[in-house]
Amino acid sequence: MDITKKLQEFISVEQLKIEVLNAAYGNTETTIAKLDSRTIFMWYFFYAIFPWLTHSWIVLIGMFLMLVAMIYLAKVSYLLLFLFVFGLVGQGSMVLGVSLLFGGSLATLLPLMMFELKLAIISLAGLIAFSTMEPEKLSDGLLKIGVPGQVSFSISYGYRMLPTLIEEYHHVFMSFRLRGKAPEKHGFLYWRSVVYFMTLVVKSFYPLMLSSAKRARTTVESLESRGSLYSFKNPAVKKVKLGYMKFSYKDSLFGLFNVLYVVMLFMLAVTLN
């Protein structure tokens, strides 16, 4: 009973909102979070592209282990890690199952493992990069590298709206449950209850989409009335807004460490081969 209660608290809506807030705002004191956002962008783009350019197991495994260590240092939310593991295992199992179903053999397992390893490296880099930047820092970083102000603000706005959307979705879902009727019998393997709840999950999205559209329109109209579009395009305003952003010795050390680490992996791979 205690285990069931703890599990319910672990996956409750309130705990989900807390984890979303932690993912967006809770990692500002870590070492990686103190780097300039442009450094984090360049680091992420490197790990998003480089794995596709090599087929060395030693290099890929070394990069994966380093990112796992950085996940711990970056204090990434358990919710994001759960989604990462669930998606990676589910996708790999599905691809392997389809391959075996259409005449493949276990010989496809090794290439599939390398493909999944590359996806894991890219996904881990994305988790580290975007969970260590709060919405304001992410928006300013995108604005600094030349992304239009409307786009950078939209991404920042989406971060801020996530907890509200989760809470509103929960209210809509519970209202459907209060007004609806649950199956009197669960059926074999609870299939009736599963169909009932899956139907509510889908139905709850429609009122949420309408409410989100109305809220976004109200926000855009209020920003336009305050001259936000002018501030996005005015160089003087952008200079004042982004004046705090600058590279430091921490950014140089971080970049140098990653370059030396990858070079060391290549040297090790060449030596062992």
Plain-language structure description:
This protein is an all-alpha fold and 273 residues long. The chain contains 13 helices and no strands. It has helices at 2-10, 13-25, 37-49, 57-74, 78-101, 109-131, 135-144, 149-179, 191-203, 205-225, 228-233, 235-241, 249-272. Helix 3 (37-49) runs antiparallel to helix 6 (109-131). The longest helix is centred in the middle third of the chain and has 31 residues, at 149-179. It is flat, with a radius of gyration of 23 Å. It starts with a helix and ends with a helix.
Fill in the keyword field for this structure.
273 residues; mainly alpha; 13 helices; flat
CA(first)-CA(last) distance: 55 Å
Low-confidence stretches: none
Radius of gyration, in angstroms, nearest whole number: 23 Å
Largest sheet: none
Give the structural class: mainly alpha
* Overall average pLDDT: 80
| Secondary structure: helix percent | over 70%
**Total strand segments:** 0
Element order: H for helix, E for strand: HHHHHHHHHHHHH
Shape label: flat
- How large is the share of residues in beta strands? under 5%
The quaternary state of the protein chains shown equals: single chain
How many helical elements? 13
